[in-house]
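input
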Amino acid sequence: MRPLDRGPVPVDQDTGSLLVFKHYKDAKIHLINRMGKFCAYCEIRLTQLIEVEHIQSKLKFPHLKNEWSNFVLSCKQCNAAKLDENPNPDDWLRPDRDNTSDAFRYRAGVVVPNSKLSPEIQARAARTIALAGLARIPTRERLDIDFRWSDRRDCEAIARKKLEEFHAGEVDAETIAELAFGYGFWGIWYITFEGVPEVRRLLSRSQTEDTKQYQGTAACFDENGNPLPRPGDLL
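output
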């Protein structure tokens, strides 16, 4: 799961003052500009039905309903799965706070906790998976409305194939990074290319660098693209 940095509150270009959102949906274009058209949870590339998701429930915490610091982008499926649940902030992993890059693994389209992490962190990862329905395999009745599982499964196969081609010298790191941006599912590409710094460096570029690939990725990686702790990180 890609660690995210939405940045500070956007500035009104006419007045130079910080934007005050009268409705949370008004923040959508600013979130897209900061973090790209990707779901913060399942990481699918968003082409339509882009939703502004509240980290903390807007019903249970109405004072945070229009707060920039409480927003990420999500797909309709993740937003619906999360609904208005509001677990303790320390009980799950937040992509806008934690370096979630190494917290999950991908198994035939299903997201699972990284078994190499401590039991405590695995429990937080499992809670995150449950919140967004990331282990959900669609039933026959839901197959036409929830494509996250099958899209992840297909992306896993593509990423593994590109890893083989990379080692065979048939494709370069820049092309792989471009494919990752085009397909989405940053986490799948990042985990698949573990031990390949040429690719990981490109995938972990932060929003402060001159790149349009995965803007809004938090700057919490070393020179080889391996994860580093973030301030306030629970991992």
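quick obs: The chain has a mean pLDDT of 91.
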